[in-house]
């Protein structure tokens, strides 16, 4: 049986990382083979692209082409083979992030993003997407404690409001795969929403 492809999305500061690890542990306890990966990144080539995307100045088209190039390598070398052997793939960000950051945040042409999505993914979409939703204001407060900011983390609150709206538009277009998590609360409150969605969907 092919494995399940689960992605995690949200604006910077939404706090998804520790929950991905907890979910991986919970799935492994239940006997699943789990691959935890991220975008941009997940393969040696895509991790090199990640360094550029996060730190080198570039225009929005270059940024878009690079995230999709990294995604193509990640899909063919890592995600598709893992799903084919029945593993559950937990991926920290995927194409919804491109629609949210490049489309919403940067204002890049959504029709071009849709075309690239078709070329690169050949119909592959996540089975489940956890969207950690949070106001840009609260996310900014959380990010203040963070390490030295990358090119995205340096953006202002208005940018992150547009990113959030970009995520909302994706959720509205494909509501069946989205589980919306209110990420404003304490860690335990957030985790209980994830566990409840896993129970309800029968995804454990
Ligand atoms: P993170 O993995 O630490 O969250 O950082 C990845 C950053 O890259 C994050 O700010 C969102 C951004 N990003 C895009 O702009 N477009 C994309 O397609 C992806 C996957 C990430």
- Average pLDDT over all residues: 97
Give the class from helix and strand content and strand pairing. alpha/beta
Helical stretch tally: 8
Strand content: 5-15%
Secondary-structure element pattern, one letter each = EHEHHEHHEHHEH
CATH class: Alpha Beta
Biggest sheet record? 5 strands, parallel
- Rg over CA atoms: 16 Å
What is the 3D shape?
Answer: globular
Walk me through this protein's architecture.
By secondary structure, the protein is of the alpha/beta class. It has one domain (4-37, 83-201): P-loop containing nucleotide triphosphate hydrolases (Rossmann fold, 3-Layer(aba) Sandwich), CATH 3.40.50. Helix content is 55%, strand content 13%. The chain has eight helices and five strands. It has helices at 17-29, 44-55, 60-84, 95-105, 110-121, 136-143, 157-173, 187-201; strands at 5-9, 34-38, 88-92, 128-133, 178-182. It has a five-stranded parallel β-sheet, with helices on both faces. It is globular. The model has no long low-confidence stretch (mean pLDDT 97). The protein binds thymidine-5'-phosphate.
